[in-house]
Structure formats: structure tokens, C-alpha cells
Amino acid sequence: MPRTRPTAPALTAVALSALLLSSCGASVRPQAEAPQALGYPVTVTNCGQELTFDRAPERVVAYDSGIVETMFALGLTDRLAGYVMSGSKNNDIEGSPWKADYERAPRLGVDRISKESILQAGADFVYAGWNYGFSEDRGLTPAHLDALGVRSYVLSESCRNGVGSTSRGTMAPLDALYTDLRNLGKVFGVSERAEQLVTEYREVVRQAEATVPADRPRPKVFLYDSGNDKPFTGGKYAASNEIITRGGGEDVMSGVLDSWTTVTWESVVEANPDVIVINDYDVPSAEDKRRFLETYPPLAQVPAVKNGRFLVLPYAALVQGPRNPAAIRTVADYLNGL
């Protein structure tokens, strides 16, 4: 979801260096050791379920950019049997700190992940999420994969928050990121790398928050993903919520108890945001989204539109993944410059 970059300040040195540190050695796979030496079996808790692994998975299929880049950041590129990513996310690849890893890993498709592509890749593990690949309607769930002898892990941002519920989110977004890094670190025997990343990311976030004036009113921020009749946006449990709030803003949709969902234009107008963050991916482009927002009559008197305050961020920065901490710094720099 990037095309043109915003007029906001570029990534600061600390945020960029943290991303580069995370990508350094992203293709380096730890030397294989006997399971006993690595401490297997290991058990992790994922979306409330305990998962036990007798060995590290060897052939992984991952879906969507934030998930794929988490594998890269953990140094697990060589474990990827392949990844699936919508063609609308090609700009995520072009602008990624892990572009070289994308080029090394096989791309299995540009549509939805499927049981066929998973089996053809000889996968023994799938990393995806609810609405990030997993769907009962398409017959692709962790339970379906278990029946095929393929293990899986669900993106924590997408954990469902009730029996029978399709609403997603059970923890603060950054906690979801750190939880998945640590869990996957245990599953793949790279816990030291996972802890290094968590430490780096916490420091980037700490430094970003330190730039926010304590006595400054927080600008109200609305995240616009897509949609004309009704806007699609991030709620309390989407990574975008903490990207906005820790960057010094007030997420006007933080009261929506979901991760990514549809709201109404009436609620946006009532919230009266000072800034609109545009989620940038290929189609429609960020420019097309901005033009729509600027010409949509109900938004004409909203301060963000009246004052032309739009911040464009790439899709991979706004969904759960290793670009989240640097995105917080980008938001902080933009809001501090208002």
C-alpha cells in the first residue's frame, strides 16, 4: 500500500539505523544443531493456545509483508520455502530494508495463500493471520493445516478476541510484535536474535517518545486505509494505534475494539482529526486516496483536509511487523513539526 513520500521529515538516523541493524545478517541462518542442544521441545502460547514443537520448522510459507519481514529480521530467510503477497504490496518490497531477502526468497503467488501452494512448496510451517491468509470461508485455518500435517502460527495482531467473534486483537500492538518475535525465536532456536530485536525496537520507541513535548496538546489523527462509501481503518488493536499514540498523536479510532475494520464517515467527521495518515499501497495510490479525501464533501471542514495535513506511510509500516518502531519516530517527527 507506497508511491510518493510525504512531506514529513525522513526517518531519523536512529530509526533508520535500527532498521538497518535489524536487517543486518537477516539472511544468516544459525548453524544447525541437534534439537536437544537447542532445548527442544519448546512450547509457546499463541492466541491463547499452547503450541509445542519438537524441532525447528525447516520449510516455512509466510503471507503478507509484515509477517514476511519478521522472518527476515529474525535471520530466517533460508527457512522460507516461499511467501505469498498481494501484487498491491510490490512497493513494500521496493522500499524494504530487506529487499535483498525478498529477492532471495521464492514468491509463491500474488493472490491469496492456498493449501495447494503450501503443499506444493513442501511446507512444514505456515505463518499467517486471521484476514492475513487464514479464513474459514476459504477452508484455510490452523486446524485445516494440522489435518494436513503442517504446523502454523497466527499473527498476534490478528488474534480473535472472543469465541465465535471475528473481531481481532487481544493485546497492545507493540506487545503483539514483541510476543511474536520472542515466540518465533523459541520455535526456530534464535531467541538471542529475537531479544536483540526487542531491545533495539524498544530503544527506537523510547527515543521517539522522548521527542514529544509533554505539555503539547496531542493532535487528533485518523488512519485512512481505503474505502469510499465507508472508510477502512485501524482500531485499538491495530499496530497503527500505537504508532500514532506513541508518536504523540491521539488515534481517533482507538475506541474501536478491533484491529482493522470498517467505520463510518460520520464518525470521522465527528472526531474532527487534525491529521490523516494514509496507508500507502499500489492500488489505489496514495495520491488517489488524498485526492478523494480532499474532494469528499463531508470532510471539507475537517482540519486535516482544510490544512492539507496528510502523512503517507507504507503498508508494511502500519501492519504488525519490524517497521513499526521506525514508523513511530516518523509520526513523532511529523507531529512535532506542525
TrEMBL record:
Q: Which ranges does the record mark as transmembrane?
A: none
Task: Look up the domain of life of the source.
Answer: Bacteria
The signal peptide annotation in the UniProt record is 1-26
Q: Which PROSITE patterns match?
A: FE_B12_PBP, PROKAR_LIPOPROTEIN
Which keywords are on file for this protein? Answer: Signal
Q: Which Pfam families match?
A: Peripla_BP_2 (PF01497)
Q: Which family does it belong to?
A: Belongs to the bacterial solute-binding protein 8 family.
**What is the designated name of this protein?**
Periplasmic binding protein
The species this protein was found in: Actinosynnema mirum (strain ATCC 29888 / DSM 43827 / JCM 3225 / NBRC 14064 / NCIMB 13271 / NRRL B-12336 / IMRU 3971 / 101)
